[in-house]
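Our preliminary data section would be incomplete without showing what the modeling component actually yields. Below, a chain of 134 amino acids is followed by its predicted structure, encoded as tokens that our downstream tools consume directly.
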Amino acid sequence: ELFELGFRYELRDLDHYLAWGCWNNDAIGHEQLLHSIFLGEAGLVMWSELFPSENYGLWNNTLMGCLPYLENFRRLLCDWDDVLPCLMTPLTSDNFTDTYSWEVRCMAVTFYIQTFFDHFGRPPIVPHLLPMQS
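Predicted structure:
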């Protein structure tokens, strides 16, 4: 839970710095975009919800389960400078395959980690997957 919470706050801090224009123009809308990356209604306050027993949101084990969260993460990253051109294409159920999902996830996560490191001088806190239950 601490890794997930740390990730959420660090992502918010970096986004505030890099997408300050979006926050100035539409703070509520941009906050909603940020919260839409994560499952649940708690936003950045996780302890008000049950601890998950399976991977969810961006880390969902099903292809269509992660689509809306990955698309919103991609949209958030597109407001940053120097976003990778391959992240500019919207994700839809028509173009979202297992291979493309993996490619976009890898590119988005790599871009986020490198951008965070470039601005804060250390690697970010990132969520961890829950082990698969048999």
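Helices lie at 2-18, 20-25, 27-35, 63-77, 98-120. The CA atoms of residues 39 and 56 lie 7 Å apart. Preliminary results of this kind motivate Aim 1 of the renewal.
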